[in-house]
């Protein structure tokens, strides 16, 4: 398990770190760092953090490149659709929070774009410290920066108060085709 904090310059990031608004980076506690997902975050506990959200089994070799310089560049790169981010503890270089926004190109409203927020998770020991709020602010900032006319998400009734505190309001309903 990695222990020394890894700087952005030594990572293969999914997209440029500058996409995350500077205001969000500035208000994060000193011992934490927010950045795009890197190709080696599998080794920093990215998948276990997601288990607070739902079943998140180990995806195996697909996400397990050996973190050597030879592998830099072979990892996940954003295709300009998915923008996954993480919050990392500087104390032990482990992921403590994560979330994604993906950008949907529309035919309507003059070929506009909508941002969809997905898979927000904060490690149980770190909940209640505004990290969820910071992840949402970062993702809505990325979405707005990429020109979306709105950012939307689905959540359980239980999480409605959290998203209201983040500035969202309830509108319409989610429909599911169950498999
Ligand atoms: N009910 C009411 N208020 C809440 C809740 C809740 N369930 N969760 C957070 N809040 C409030 C906080 O008290 C805080 O209020 P304050 O500003 O008055 O102090 C505000 O919302 C911000 O809370 P954070 O500290 O930023 O929340 P946290 O870091 O704990 O993250 C999260 C919230 C992401 C829901 C976390 O609890 C978590 O990982 N839960 C399990 C996974 C999950 O449910 N993820 C969301 C799924 S929906 C999706 O992914 C689109």
From TrEMBL:
One of its GO terms (biological process) is UDP-N-acetylglucosamine biosynthetic process. GO terms for molecular function: glucosamine 6-phosphate N-acetyltransferase activity. It catalyses: D-glucosamine 6-phosphate + acetyl-CoA = N-acetyl-D-glucosamine 6-phosphate + CoA + H(+). Belongs to the acetyltransferase family. GNA1 subfamily. InterPro entries: Acyl_CoA_acyltransferase, GNAT_dom, GNPNAT1-like. Pathway: Nucleotide-sugar biosynthesis; UDP-N-acetyl-alpha-D-glucosamine biosynthesis; N-acetyl-alpha-D-glucosamine 1-phosphate from alpha-D-glucosamine 6-phosphate (route I): step 1/2. It holds the Pfam family Acetyltransf_1. It comes from Thelephora terrestris. It comes from the Eukaryota. Keywords: Acyltransferase, Transferase. SUPFAM superfamilies: Acyl-CoA N-acyltransferases (Nat). This is Glucosamine 6-phosphate N-acetyltransferase. Its EC number is 2.3.1.4. Residues 32-179 form the N-acetyltransferase domain.
């Amino acid at each position: 398990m990695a222990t020394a904090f890894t700087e952005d310059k030594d990572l293969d990031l999914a997209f440029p770190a500058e996409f995350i608004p500077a205001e969000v980076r500035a208000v994060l506690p000193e011992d934490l760092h927010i950045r795009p997902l890197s190709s080696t975050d599998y080794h920093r506990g990215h998948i276990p953090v997601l288990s607070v959200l739902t079943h998140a089994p180990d995806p195996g070799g697909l996400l397990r490149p050996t973190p050597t310089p030879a592998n830099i560049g072979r990892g996940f790169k954003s295709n300009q659709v998915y923008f996954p981010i993480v919050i990392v503890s500087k104390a032990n270089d482990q992921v403590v929070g994560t979330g994604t926004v993906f950008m949907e190109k529309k035919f309507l409203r003059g070929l506009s774009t909508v941002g969809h927020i997905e898979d927000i998770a904060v490690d149980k020991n770190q909940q209640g410290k505004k990290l969820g709020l910071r992840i949402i602010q970062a993702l809505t900032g990325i979405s707005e920066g990429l020109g979306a006319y709105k950012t939307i998400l689905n959540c359980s009734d239980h999480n409605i108060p959290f998203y209201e505190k983040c500035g969202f309001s309830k509108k319409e309903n989610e429909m599911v085709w169950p498999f």
